[in-house]
Amino acid sequence: MNEKTKNILEWIECIVIAIILALLIRYFIGTPTVVRMESMYPTLEQNQRLILNRWARTTKKMPERGDIITFEQPSDTYISVEEADFENPVAVYNNEPDNLISKFTYYVLEWGKTSYIKRVIGLPGEHLQISNGKVYINGEELDESAYLKEDVYTDDYGGVFTDIVVPEGYVFAMGDNRTKSADSRRFGCVPIEKIEGKVAIRFWPLNKFGPVGKAE
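Request: output the structure for the sequence above.
Response:
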């Protein structure tokens, strides 16, 4: 093997290793993302750039109430009252990739995958109710003043899951822009294994650079 060929192979090896490391970091630790919709307005605005913390997904840690998370879009984004199972009010995921290559491109490269960004409101085992424009957890009104404007009114937004018990291993998530957010009210609770990450840092625009926390 001549010196030129050896150098080329070494460069290829370095590039392959760099790609693998980047994919591992992206999947298990953290990755950038862009806000595409307005369901979290005014906390998050369209085209803002964020860093997602994916370590919680790696360790299977349940998010806390108030965390802003991203998760895979359910297969059915609206469940009617006739279709709803109120004993098991969970989001439907029935379009799973069926082979190794498609799983890699979908889950690791995230090609063809759509994600939602919402705030965790209800936790496993809690009785969640939406009534009179407010959210109630186990009969107590939830204080959302840290992230909702005073004039925000929470209704069913056409959804049927407004008086449920959140199943074990699931969370109930809603957008801060309650009148323009397709969320758990419409499709049910989100399984922890479909949560992709927690919003950690907003890095664009620069004048809003910093951590994105529960009190945004």
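The chain has four helices and twelve strands.
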